[in-house]
Sequence to fold (284 residues):
Amino acid sequence: MKKAKSFLMMTLGTLIIAVGIYFFKFPNNFATGGVTGISVILASLQSILSASDLVLIINTLLLIVGFIFVNKEFGFKTVYCSLLMSGSVWAFERLFPLSGSLTGEPLLDLVYAVLLPAIGSAMLFNDEASTGGTDIVAMIIKKYARINISKALLIADFLIVLCSLFVFGVRTWLFSLLAFFAKAFVVNGVLEAINVSKHCAVILPPDKLETVTDYITHQLKKGATVSDSFRGGYHGEPKALLLTVLTRRQTIQLKAFLKREVPEAFTIVSSTNEIIGKGFRETV
Fold:
């Protein structure tokens, strides 16, 4: 069941990326870096191959190079997502040929050209997958050279964006530059939204501790850390403390349970997006 869910999320995320690239990025010649940016520029310099053709060709070549130089580190997820994204963009061109901007509004297209691939990429990153492309180059560099990969890829992407200035002019370059800076923030924002969990600290009477702990462990299927050796600073009454981390939905359920069963409980809820451990993000 977990593998099936992972496969569906990878497929959905990859298709969202493909939609953003073909319907919003390509018609406007937005070159924001990576394989799609290179493909947009190369497609404008010749009339034989389209940007969609070039994405498929370049990603396939990079996969072959990856198999040769990276070998065992090269995972199924990268192969699947790379081929699905490239194939989907290529198929979209055959099924839905476009002669220009989908909306006629470049700024609106830019929003979706950034937002959709960012959402899809965040979904893949959350599942430890990617669509390949420059990620494959990063794997090769990591294996054979001791340089800062993130900086190297950032510089490479910026140079691709810079090339669009000479190929498409200032207007398109400025749109591409805006998208280049925006995509990192959007990806991080979506990732945080996907991974957000709730850290709950519940202060309650010691005689209610077992009831609440039982509800969390058996009904919500989550763990809890408890202590019954506290006392209130105002009245000096004995208190128990329960700590747990839940999803948004489980937090709502817990609050409803406490309101119904332990109305005197004092609950502190805070958001967090980096939970490592069983039931959340597994350690490697």
Observations:
- The chain has a mean pLDDT of 84.
- Strands lie at 197-204, 225-231, 238-246, 266-272.
